[in-house]
Specification:
Blueprint lengths: L2 H12 L11 E7 L4 E5 L12 H11 L5 E8 L9 H10 L5 E6 L4 E5 H4 L15
Parallel strand pairs: 3-4
Antiparallel strand pairs: 1-2, 1-3, 4-5
The structure holds 2'-deoxyuridine and zinc ion (ZN).
The site of zinc ion has 6 residues, from helix 3.
């Protein structure tokens, strides 16, 4: 799918963000291999750390609907540079994305930076590292 289509959808969903504390709104869109779109916005909480980022909301919505294969993601926020996803979201993305999955990040000035999963989180901890057969 065209990255601008995904980014425009992310901009639209960003308006739904629940951000009474930071007033920092983020929108995310996830495209599955089957061609479905899952959207997410950040959802904050009076207990601040309970907040969930837009990226993880989109991924968790998709997983909970039985989708496990993804093509690309788009993320938008009102930042000076295309918004860099936080470390927790990078780890969650790496659980479900391939090394070459592209993440389109952007700001409201329509500056776009596309990065692969591997570039976003190199040398990531993954299931193979659990070494479950050792004891
Ligand atoms: O990539 C990001 C970075 C931050 N946030 C949210 C978390 C919190 O609600 C607010 C400020 O950190 O922005 C996201 O949703 N995605
Ligand atoms: Zn995050």
């Amino acid at each position: 799918m065209d990255k601008l289509t995904l980014l425009n959808k992310a901009k639209e969903i960003r308006e739904k963000a629940y951000t009474p504390y930071s007033h920092f709104k983020v929108g995310a869109v996830l495209l599955t291999k089957s061609g479905n779109l899952y959207t997410g916005c950040n959802i904050e909480n009076a207990a601040y750390p309970v907040t969930c980022c837009a990226e993880r909301v989109a991924i968790f919505k998709a997983i909970s609907e039985g989708e496990t294969e993804f093509n690309e993601m788009a993320v938008v926020a009102d930042t000076k540079r295309p918004v860099p996803p936080c470390g927790s979201c990078r780890q969650v993305m790496s659980e479900f994305f391939s090394k070459d999955t592209r993440i389109h990040t952007a700001n409201l000035l329509d500056e776009v930076k596309t990065v692969t999963m591997d570039a976003l989180l190199p040398y990531s901890f993954e299931s193979d590292d659990l070494n479950e057969d050792k004891e």
